[in-house]
């Protein structure tokens, strides 16, 4: 076999293996629907009230949250970008919570990719996060979301009939809370 033939075959095999590795689940697409994710009802009563989840349930799905829009942040306690972005995400939460027109329409949650309940609690306390954070210690939710890099934000519009659709799906830090909120409001059709 000639040297160029060997190199060609190696390149072909390399390209095929890259293609097979990237053939996993893709990140959520705008216009699509969320995978069937079940979360534990938060133990903190303020978080239960914030989400509008009844206290007699043990689990819930994201479309059951009492809001028109749910913003999901996929984060990790160990992600330096998530740590740096936490104050800006808190600013976003506060802007929404202080706006009488938005506070019952838009809710935020965070899902800690690969994070245990202890790690999520540590992140919540360290960065003074007031919205509910949920552990994903076995990466099962993270895998359903296509193993996205963190931070990753997903905007979900919840319709009155219980259906929902993704209107925003992007990786990266927020950087500017007012600008991001305007983008979300525009994309959600507010």
Which radius of gyration do the C-alpha atoms yield?
19 Å
Question: How would you sum up the global shape?
Answer: globular
CATH class: Alpha Beta
Total domain modules = 1
How are the strands of the biggest sheet laid out side by side? 5-4-3-6-7
State the fourth-level CATH superfamily: Glutaredoxin
At the fold tier of CATH, the topology name is Glutaredoxin
Poorly predicted ranges: 10-23
Write down the oligomeric state.
Answer: single chain
Distinct helical segment count: 6
- Proportion of residues in helical segments: 25-40%
Level-2 CATH architecture:
3-Layer(aba) Sandwich
Sheet/helix structural class: alpha/beta
How confident is the prediction overall: mean pLDDT?
Answer: 88
Q: What is the beta-strand fraction?
A: 15-25%
Number of beta-strand segments: 7
Instruction: For the record, give the distance between the C-alpha atoms at the N and C termini, rounded to a whole number.
Output: 64 Å
User: Which sequence of SSEs, written as H and E, runs from N to C?
Assistant: HEHEEHEHEHEEH
The description of the largest β-sheet is: 5 strands, mixed
């Amino acid at each position: 076999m000639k040297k160029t033939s060997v190199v060609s075959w190696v390149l072909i095999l390399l390209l095929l293996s890259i293609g097979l590795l990237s053939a996993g689940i893709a990140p959520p697409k705008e216009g699509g629907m969320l995978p069937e994710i079940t979360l534990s009802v938060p133990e903190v009563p303020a978080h239960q009230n914030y989400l509008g989840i009844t206290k007699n349930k043990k689990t819930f799905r994201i479309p059951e949250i009492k809001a028109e829009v749910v913003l999901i942040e996929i984060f990790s306690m160990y992600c330096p970008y998530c740590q740096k972005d936490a104050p800006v995400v808190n600013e976003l939460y506060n802007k929404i919570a202080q706006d009488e027109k938005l506070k019952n329409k838009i809710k935020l949650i965070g899902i800690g990719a690969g994070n245990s309940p202890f790690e999520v609690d540590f992140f919540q306390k360290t960065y003074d996060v007031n919205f509910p954070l949920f552990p994903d210690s076995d990466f099962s939710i993270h895998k359903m979301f296509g193993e996205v890099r963190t931070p990753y934000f997903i905007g979900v519009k919840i319709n009155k009939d219980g259906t929902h659709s993704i209107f925003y799906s992007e990786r990266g830090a927020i950087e500017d809370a007012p600008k991001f909120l305007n983008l979300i409001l525009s994309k959600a059709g507010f």
